[in-house]
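EI: anyone free to look at a 587-residue chain?
SC: sure, send it
EI:
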Amino acid sequence: MKIKHSIILAFYFLFCTETNAQQKTYCNPINIDYGYCPIPNFVTQGKHRATADPVITFFKGEYYLFSTNQWGYWHSKDMLDWKFIPRKFLRPEHKVYDELCAPSLSFVNDTLVVVGSTQGKEFPIWMSTNPSKDDWKELVHKSQAGAWDPYIFWDKDTDEVYEYYGSSNVYPLHGVKLNRKTFQPEGEVYDLFGLNDDEHGWERFGENNDNTFLQPFMEGAFMTKHNNKYYLQYGGPGTEFSGYGDGVYTSDKPLGPFEYQSFNPFSYKPGGFARGAGHGGTYDDANGAYWHVSTIAICTKNNFERRLGIWPAGFDADGILYSNTAYGDYPTFLPSEKKDHLKGSFSGWMLLNYNKPVQVSSTLGGFQPNYAVNEDIKTYWSAKTGNKGEWLISDLGEKSTINAIQVNFADQDVELMGKPETTTGHKYIIYISDDNKNWKILVDKSKNTKDVPHDYIELEKPASGRYLKIENIQMPTGKFALCGFRAFGKGNGQKPAMVQNFVPLRAEARKKGERRSVWFKWQQEASADGYVIYFGKSPDKMYGAIMVYGKNEYYFNGADRSEAYYFQIEAFNNNGIGRRTEVKLAP
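SC: here you go
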């Protein structure tokens, strides 16, 4: 009987706990092995992971991802399973902390080109025709094009090369043509454009673009050419903030003059679990569809504690560059699904356990259990130890259909630093139950050897249950701590009704007042977990999206002073999304 029972158990583990081999979705923040980065000159509340300033390009059938201070880079064939290649691009004589800070990644014909940020004129520009094998050579030994936040752009239509750069709260972005053979600057350096926070509300400093006392930062130049138009993108106003976003200016010439796009910021996500969508780059996938990768702010243990997010993007019929961040930290379809990015690539699986009851094995100090389900990546629950057997139980409130789970680990009392060459991996088991007594294994990661700080599991077959329990087997470092234990699928109730009495309040143009800010009020929808506010400068181009949890008001500080805006709102809960309101004009 014991042998038969063991065989049955083995088959259960083999067939019932596997995740989907043909996974169709991903979930932000993306699940890569972020390095543990020491950041000088700022108060650090313990060791932690960090990266930012990402760039992705699709090159020879693979996606390549570079970001700040990772001592290497990632590549992937499907934009889901990222494999890390360790490499130091700076030579031993470079006595600097930053290893490829805010790197430039682009290609010229059949060659990938990479360079990091520098204030000097001695960093190399690297080249590779076979980057999947870590095969690199110096294209330029000492580049006179050295700059901070550089981007080298190859205009394949003209076979010319340009560099755009700048990171400052004083100076504008700059542009210069590079010699096609030597990749050294030639000709005039152009001052292209700077921030105009007096007009553009979203360029104001502060957590919610609400600080008018400190000068905002402009950084992260990135160029995309589409239909013979040049789209020069930039980040602002500060990487530490939820209001961190990307804007774009356009021109019919690579060095301008440039004109502010009518819809800005085109990449913006000030609300939800993963907040911030600034300093990134736009790229196309294997099918020719566009995506935008950018920086997500945590900034709890350090100003520069950050992660990465990928958002569906594109150009509309009028050439407007947009990024669709609505439900952008919920399960999103991968490029293989070929979705319309204007309509979004959201899977439709809703968050099932927002602010629902939680039980835990232990609690460390003020790191309370509810912080694991409150949709705030800046807060987290921590157990007292990282020992085997620490656990958390999440009550979904009702028996629900579960399609996917995201496990977001927090860095509590971690001991690693840099990019460890080996890791024990995050080992855990997730159980499911209808009654909080009888448990079955749903996901078995007890043998996992991968570093998965934002592990995302799409189930091969939807599961049904009310309770989920995650039990720690082993942490690679630190205590068992979660900033987000998130279950996605559908409940068995009704989706919310249409929101009533939605009103955008804004100062009149003919009167003195703060027109860069709009105050929204609406009647609380009783069954709603949260709301998404859409905005734009015309009713057919409402590409901006703001997610709001648990409130019936919001202060939007990202408007352009001189322009009229249109707004809509919809409510959502674990059962689905309610109907949008009629469009409201704020002239």
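EI: The two ends are 76 Å apart (CA to CA).
SC: 👍
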